[in-house]
Amino acid sequence: MAALDFKCDDCGEKFFEIVNSYNKDKVVCPKCQSKNVRQVFEGKCQTGGSSKGGCGGSCGTCGGCH
Ligand SMILES: [Zn+2]
How far apart are CA 54 and CA 11, in angstroms? Predict the structure, then answer.
């Protein structure tokens, strides 16, 4: 179980959700109830490497560092 950051592709809402193996595929946007959400890794970009911790926009999943 973990608190993961998500972003809604429909309305742009950013939110986090406590997810586990039972509900991780059922996350919906709290604002518009869209299922068109994706996980982002705000502030935790793993593919960066720059001294600022950013990925330069190349990782494709990062919602916060560029
Ligand atoms: Zn939404």
Answer: 25
Q: Report CA(38)–ligand 1 centroid distance (Å).
A: 11
- Amino acid at the residue 58: S
pTM summary value: 0.61
For residue 47, name the pLDDT band (cuts at 50, 70, 90). low
Instruction: Reply yes or no on whether the pLDDT at 24 is more than 60.
Output: yes
Q: How far apart (Å, rounded) are the C-alpha atoms in residues 64 and 19?
A: 20
14-22: list long-range contacts, CB under 8 Å, 24+ apart: 14/40, 14/42, 14/63
Structural domains of the chain, ranges and CATH numbers in brackets? 1-66 (2.20.28)
- Centre of ligand 1 to C-alpha 29, Å, is 5
Q: How many residues does the structure list for the chain?
A: 66
